[in-house]
Input
Amino acid sequence: MSTFQSALTQLERAAKLINLDPRILKVLETPEHLHEKTLTIKMDNGSEQEFHAYRVQHNNSRGPYKGGIRFHPQVDMDEVKALALWMTIKTAVVDIPFGGAKGGITVDPKKLSARELEELSRQYARAFFDILGPDKDVPAPDVNTNPQIMGWMTDEYAKLAKGGEQRAKGSTPYAIGPTQLQATFTGKSIAHGGSEGREEATGYGGFVVLEALRVKQRVKSLEQRANNSTPYALRPTPTVAVQGFGNVGYFFAEHAHRAGYKLISISDSRGAILDKRTLGMDPENIMKTKKERGTIGGCYCIGTVCDCENYTQISNEEILELPVDILVPAALEGVLHKDNAHKVKAKIILEMANGPTTPEAERILLERGTLIVPDVLANAGGVATSYFEWKQNMAGEKWNKAQVLAQLKEKLEYAFTEVWRTAQELHTDLRTAAYAVALERLKQAVTVTRT
Output
């Protein structure tokens, strides 16, 4: 099953449960615009190289298209279509006034020099200039893109927009101001109009959702005890494994560690470190090792003192099979599939990556009683804070980090409460409930704009 077909399967399951009008479902199953370009850049050795670039605009019934841009060798149209659909659902789940889109370039950015990477980023902004804008389509960082890349794209977009303004003098003036031009891209650096708190927003948001889940579990446990039924098995200090130690995985791990969760395994693209004694590791120490050595490795170091006896290296596949309370896939999609789902021992899966669990794997896991917190809720902190950044740029405002994270916490706790309530009412899993919440909001907008 392709990634896009997986996304459609999830959509159709929820649509059937709430008896969604088939006409509305048909609208949501079909991306509104598919854009594909070939970007040609001059390499440092003087040769020219072509790269395939994509932007899929899935639906804008609730507001401007919104979605990240990823640089990865496996980017293709099918993947981008799925990610764009998931963004439409995600923005509706957290109830922000955006639609869904996604973009990408088929490239291994690690093989490019800084100059080549900048040129490719600026080429992307030039190629898709006509379809982007603060009131049209608002991209953000995704896999292998960052505030620097968003800064280059924002700068290139502004140059083109200001050029159009100069050409329009004497006729129709350009109506968007400087800070509103910055709102075309989010996830920028603070110096270029970015928001405080954006760097840690996705990881922190996942932690907020997990804490909200634990509150609901405690309540349910008390109810079950009162009814003399079997209570949820909750440990005072749950064990956690995090697959993926980029920006999202690190900040989730950092907040979880501070709250007392035991991080017994963390991985990057080259493998994972396992705490054999399950005492728990400080992710800050692991990040220092990664920065110094380029990889996590099999030793746990605190300063210059490294323990290679009580810690060992395991693979990215093995980390998925550890007997932990909470498994956090925070890398790429499809890591949990029909061939490994029966080996997963975690009680809770918190999806910090987009689409890490295939529909086949999900069926196996749900039948075994695994609780899955879906990506469209768990990792929605990034897009929610992107909305805050866009809002600040559009209004010419600047919020401090405390304001941003407080608003994010409030929004995600409310979103989780709505999803949990819907799951209980419909007697369904959290993913289907999240889609149901999103579809109830989307159908109002789709009905208004497409009847």
Notes: The chain has two domains: 33-194, 201-378.
